[in-house]
Amino acid sequence: MKPFRERNPIAVAVVGLAVLIVLALVAYRADDLPIIGGGTTYTADFSDSAGLRPGNEVRVAGVKVGKVTGVGLDGAKVKVAFRVKDTWIGDTSRVSIMIKTLLGDKYLAVEPTGGGRQRPGQRIPLARTTSPYDVTQAFNGLATTFDQLDSKKIEASLEALAQTFKNTPPVVHQALTGLSSLSETISSRDSQLVKLLAGTKQITGTLAAQNDNFQALLQDGNLLLGEIQQRRDAINALLTGSVQLARQLSGLVDDNQAQLDPTLRALDTTTAMLQRNEGSLDRVLAIAAPYFRLLGNDVGNGRWFDAYLCGVIPRNYLPPGSLPATGCMPPKQGGR
After folding, report:
1. 137, 139, 145, 147: CA torsion to nearest 10
2. How far apart are CA 44 and CA 130, in angstroms?
3. Does 81 score more than 90 pLDDT?
């Protein structure tokens, strides 16, 4: 084979670019590959998508087993396609869109029931699917509905009904009077209600925008709780070990009471004696300190020490004038 340096660089560049494109496509569609991806794709009909999106999780008994691959309108129904791997889906299994977080994130929950396997080409009908009630959309629709109401006309209508039923029995009259009061209250609070619902819509939008941050916060909270649990187990093991050590020491003392008792008594006698002679020991140490200081000075010059002996040789054996004038007192440094 020719080395690359001898080949046509344009052909080498084209082949390399084609290989890079193939690798990028393989990485992008890795989930569809038969070995590292794969799985079985099922479809189900729903009356409402309820905010479900492709990429949302598919769970069985709370365990993630796949993901949603497609959400689209099919006539008056919503067609949802999902793929699961190594998961048994029965022919009577129920599929529900569930709320994952308080901020509106969803996932697909599958209840794998039935005596036979669900055929992938057969769609799961509406009778076996459930869509959740979206509170955020309900509040948004309520705000829009209140904006479209004419509170003055409602008040006039209720007032006309009250005048029409003026000569009715007292019970009906009281009920209509209450309705009139209710209409007046609603009319007087119309702007406040509109502001309240608009603020609610803004709050839900803000919370939805911070969904990822809340999710990260909850995950960090789980990690913190896990670490606290581990530290609690470690502290519990330490306390348990301390209790067992105390029991072992108590047993050791009980087993060796006969041997330890004389030793402790002798130690008590020794300490009592030392305490009684504390003054004498202080004086001994005070007297010994200068001696050891001088001894250290003598032997600190090398492997010898200076000494002075007086009176060893009789006086009559010494030449005249050799005795120091101070008698046996050591001469001063320098030999004088």
Report:
1. -120
2. 10
3. yes
- One-letter amino acid at 252 equals L
3-state SS, one letter per residue, for 177-236: HHHHHHHHHHHHCHHHHHHHHHHHHHHHHHHHHCHHHHHHHHHHHHHHHHHHHHHHHHHH
Q: Which of the two residues, 147 and 9, has the higher pLDDT score?
A: 9
The set of residues, in sequence order, having a beta carbon less than 8 Å from that of 48 and lying 6+ positions away, is 78, 131
Cα 336 from Cα 325, distance rounded (Å):
10
DSSP-derived pairing of the beta strands 94-99 and 129-130: parallel
Residue 123 to residues 42, 69, 88, Cα–Cα distance (Å)? 7, 15, 16
Residue 223's Cβ-side half-sphere holds a number of Cα atoms within 13 Å equal to 6
Average pLDDT rounded to a whole number, residues 259-285: 83
